[in-house]
Write a structure and sequence with these properties.
The protein is an alpha+beta fold. Helices cover 26% and strands 47% of the residues. The strands form two sheets. Strands 1, 2, 3, 4, 5 and 6 form a six-stranded antiparallel β-sheet that branches. A five-stranded antiparallel β-sheet has the order 9-8-7-10-11, covered by helices on one side.
Length: 223
């Protein structure tokens, strides 16, 4: 074989070797980055310094209220409400100085830790809608806050003792899934201690923009 042919063959082999080395290097880098990404994802999904504890959070409607306010400045199609200068659309064609009834709402951020305990953080009041009369405002709010009687699961009852005094408590599971603890009398303790379900009065607070989203609140015993 002539030297030019040998050089050509050697050059081709050397070129192929460089290509193969480049391919293996790229695969090695991809593997390294993949491992780093997997470790990072694992770290981000863990509980950090809490040793793997997780927290679930949700925002639910909490309450509504009605109060009187005075129309302040008119800005385009909006109006301010005194004394806090909250701004709302002037859908009722109100004038500066008019007295209006304001429906306001409050939400709650509920966090449930890995230990099952609830942490509730309430928002401030936010104006939602204005009305010319208090009766119209109450009619609207009655559709967002309703009281009903229903049966719920009784988690259990228990007593606490301090010196010569004691207190009784009952824990029930609400339709929304959260648990409520309520002080009870000795008579009610005896009446319900062996029951699995009890009748209560609850208030359902519905979200104004998504009526199916509701928060149930304990409002008393129905028996």
């Amino acid at each position: 074989m002539s030297r030019p042919a040998m050089n050509s063959r050697y050059g081709s082999g050397k070129k192929r070797s460089r290509i193969m080395i480049g391919i293996f290097s790229a695969l090695a880098l991809l593997l390294v980055f993949g491992l780093i990404g997997a470790c990072s994802d694992k770290k981000n999904t863990s509980g950090g310094a809490t040793g793997g504890a997780t927290t679930e959070s949700s925002v639910v409607p909490w309450d509504y209220k009605i109060e009187q306010a005075k129309v302040g400045d008119l800005i385009g199609g909006d109006m301010t409400l005194l004394p806090n200068n909250d701004m709302l659309p002037n859908d009722g064609n109100f004038a500066t100085g008019d007295q209006v009834w304001v429906l306001s709402f409050m939400t709650a951020e509920m966090k449930t830790g890995a230990d099952g305990k609830n942490d509730v953080k309430l928002s401030g009041w936010t104006p939602l809608k204005t009305f010319k009369t208090e009766s119209a405002a109450k009619t609207d709010m009655s559709q967002l806050k309703t009281e009903i009687q229903t049966e719920v699961d009784l988690i259990g009852v228990y007593k606490t003792q301090y010196g010569d005094k004691h207190r009784d408590f009952a824990v029930v599971s609400m339709p929304s899934g959260h648990k409520v603890k309520q002080p009870i009398s000795d008579e009610r303790y005896t009446a319900i201690k062996d029951k699995k379900r009890v009748k209560i009065v609850l208030e359902e607070v519905h979200d104004f923009s998504n009526y199916d989203l509701a928060m149930s609140k304990f409002r008393g015993w129905a028996e």
